[in-house]
Amino acid sequence: MTNTLQAGVIGLGKFGYKFGKTLMELGHTVVGIDVNPDNIKRAQHVFSQVFQADASDKTTLEQMGMADLTHVLISVGDSIASSAMISMYLKELGVKVVWVKAINGDHEKLLQKIGVDKVVMPEHLAAKQLANRMAIPGFIEHLPFDKEMVIKEVVIDEWAGKTLREIDLTNRYNIQVIATRSAGSEKFKFIPKADQELKAGDVLVTIGHIEQLGKLHS
After folding, report:
1. What is the CATH number of domain 132-215?
2. What pTM value is reported for the model?
3. Sheet containing 203-209: which strands, arranged edge to edge?
4. What is the tens place of the pLDDT at every residue in 64-94?
5. What is the per-residue pLDDT across 16-27, written as a single tens digit (0 to 9) for each?
6. Do domains 6-122 and 132-215 have the same CATH topology?
7. CATH architecture observed for domain 6-122
C-alpha cells in the first residue's frame, strides 16, 4: 500500500481502540500505548505493537520511538492535564501530526495553544450529525474543511423526466451533483453526465451549503 502511515494511538479505550483498529484494517502500521492491562490485552492481537506504559512521561515516549511516527492520536479519557502534557511532549519530539480527543471547549482551547494539529470531540460531532439527519432528510455528513458544507441524498420525484442540465442545480442553488443511483439499484455512478435523464426514485448525491440543501425539493 502506498503512503502507509506509521501511526500511534495513546489511550486504548473505546475511541482510541476503534480508531487504531480502523487504521490497521486500512493497511497502516499502528503502535498503541495504555496503562490499563485489559486495554492492552484487547489490542495486542489487533495493533502492530502495543506497550503498557505511562505516556505522560517524556522519556517513555522517546524510548518507545514516538518521534519516529508520522501521526499520533491521543485519547486519554477525562484527563485534561495528561493529554496536554503528552501533546506538548510529542510536539517537542517532532511528531508531524498530533490529533487529540478533547472533552470540552476549554480543553480544546488549551490543546490549540499547545499547537496540536487537530482537536476531536466525538460526542459533539455525533450529536450534530444526528440532529442534521433528523432535520434534513437524506443528510449524509458534514465536510471536514467547512462545517456549513454537507453531503445529502436527494430522491427524484417532481424532476422525473428532466436532465441534470435542465434542473441546473449548480447555477440555481450552488449545489453540485457528484453521483447518481438508479431507482432499485445499489450501484452509484460518479461524476454524472449533464444530459442524463432522471427517473422517479433515482437518487442524487449532492454537495452544497446546508441552508441551500435544506430548501431543496425534487
Report:
1. 3.30.70.1450
2. 0.67
3. 139-143, 146-155, 203-209, 176-181, 188-190
4. 999 999 999 999 978 899 999 999 999 999 9
5. 999 999 999 989
6. no
7. 3-Layer(aba) Sandwich (3.40)
